[in-house]
Design goal:
Elements: E1 6-11, H1 21-33, E2 37-44, E3 63-67, H2 77-98, E4 104-108, H3 112-125, E5 128-132, H4 139-143, H5 151-166, E6 169-172, H6 175-182, E7 190-193, E8 219-224, H7 233-241, E9 247-252, H8 258-267, E10 273-276, H9 284-289, E11 293-297, H10 310-316, E12 321-324, H11 330-338, E13 341-344, H12 350-356, H13 359-363, H14 367-377, H15 380-393
Parallel strand pairs: 1-2, 1-4, 2-3, 4-5, 5-6, 6-7, 8-9, 8-11, 9-10, 11-12, 12-13
């Protein structure tokens, strides 16, 4: 009887100890597969994006191969392009030399350039590739203002659409992303929604004000995560700054617009707004529970192009959500269906909604119901069951 485990290769730019969302998700995926599969992870060395785990993880049962990490500025487009090109070339060289026919390969949509190479090389290697879509290329470049909808975009889109269509299985994060990716690929390709999960074992509702610098009777909001250009945070800060007597806003994270936000807060003397550096994942239980409401925001151009994974940890803490983002996006549907907060489709609606939110209206949102939603639908167990089933049947 042959008890040899099926080989699984995982290619990810970020991995433990990097605890940004993709790094954390791929690490937990690899650990969860190690009991049934022979797992090797190919990644960069060490931390890439500034959020390190506090603890030590032995990664038992995994082989992790790390390429040298060139510590370039991820907020510089040119340096980021150099970094992604370098890691893509290393990934493709490794793939060509080591992956065998019928091996299972898991890759994510970063680095994007590697997807084109995996698609081409696999015509000869004949492995089974599962693509985990966290970002949709090149559509997200247009949404982020990095590329115009012209000849270069159309050329890139055709190339990436062909690459997506070549993979054996695709997972997406939500219903809006499913719609967008389906429009890119051959109708025969297999695709499934595999949502991220909340850390229901580690996170729960507790009394905490560790990160609330204000500690007064005003309604407190928190935005924790990537301080990027696709979150419209400059608009958010300016609108919150107009309501100093009623509400407070705490921002936690790093990103391309961090310095701009600090400048706005200082110059306009928004004394009801504070900004903290990124915090370790272990602090989530405090920086979610320290505030009345958690904020998730996305540019209206981001329909189907991303689902913030922090949503599910907010649910695990039983906190209501204020969402500003595209209509009929995954988070919009989630909030509207389950009545767990406020969902706006334009920042123009924000001032009136902020004025209407009160301690009383917040108290009427059932935190136990929010927590139960996380336990029933968005757990690590649900995630791993879906991923193992895909790997066994692809």
């Amino acid at each position: 009887m042959n008890n040899k485990k099926q080989k699984v290769w995982i290619f990810s730019e970020v991995f433990y100890p990097d605890q940004t969302s993709t790094g954390y998700i791929l690490t937990e995926l690899a650990k969860g597969l190690a009991d049934e599969f022979d797992v090797t992870v190919i990644t960069e060395s060490g931390n890439s994006y500034g959020v390190l785990s506090k603890g030590k993880d032995e990664l038992t049962g995994l082989e992790v191969i790390r390429f040298k990490n060139y510590r370039l500025d991820k907020n510089s487009l040119f340096q980021r392009l150099i970094k992604l090109t370098g890691i893509s070339v290393k990934f493709l060289s490794f793939f060509l030399k080591n992956v065998n026919k019928n091996d299972k390969v898991i890759c994510v949509t970063n680095p994007a350039l590697a997807l084109l190479g995996f698609s081409f090389l696999n015509k000869f290697k004949k492995s089974k590739i599962i693509l985990i879509v966290h970002d949709v290329f090149p559509e997200n470049l247009v949404a982020g203002g990095l590329l115009k909808d012209g000849f270069i975009y159309r050329l890139l889109k055709k190339s990436f659409d062909m690459a997506y269509s070549s993979f054996d299985f695709i997972t997406v994060l939500g219903r809006d992303m499913l719609s967008v990716v389906r429009s890119k690929i051959d109708i025969s390709r297999r695709i499934e929604i595999v949502e991220n999960w909340g850390q229901v074992e580690e996170l729960r509702q507790i009394e905490s004000n560790k990160f609330d610098s204000f500690k007064d009777d005003r309604i407190s909001f928190v935005f924790a995560g990537n301080l990027g250009r696709l979150q419209n945070l400059e608009v958010l800060v300016n609108q919150f700054g107009q309501l100093k007597d009623k509400i407070t806003l705490t921002l936690i994270g790093e990103g391309a617009v961090k310095n701009e936000l600090l400048k706005i807060i200082e110059e306009k003397k928004y004394t009801n707004i504070k900004l903290f550096d990124s915090q370790p994942r272990e602090e989530q239980i405090h920086f979610i529970n320290s505030f009345d409401v958690s904020i998730i925001s996305l540019s209206e151009k981001m329909y189907g192009l991303g689902v913030p994974s922090k949503t599910y940890n907010i649910l695990a803490c039983g906190k209501p959500i204020l969402y500003i983002g595209p209509k009929d996006s995954e988070i919009d549907i989630l909030i509207s269906t389950h009545k767990i907060g406020w969902s706006l489709n334009s920042f123009d609606q924000l001032p009136s909604v902020l004025s209407s939110i009160s301690k009383d209206s917040i108290s009427k949102i059932d935190r136990i119901k929010i927590r139960k939603l996380s336990e029933d639908q968005y757990t690590y167990g649900h995630f791993m069951e879906k991923m193992k089933n895909i790997l066994q049947n692809v």
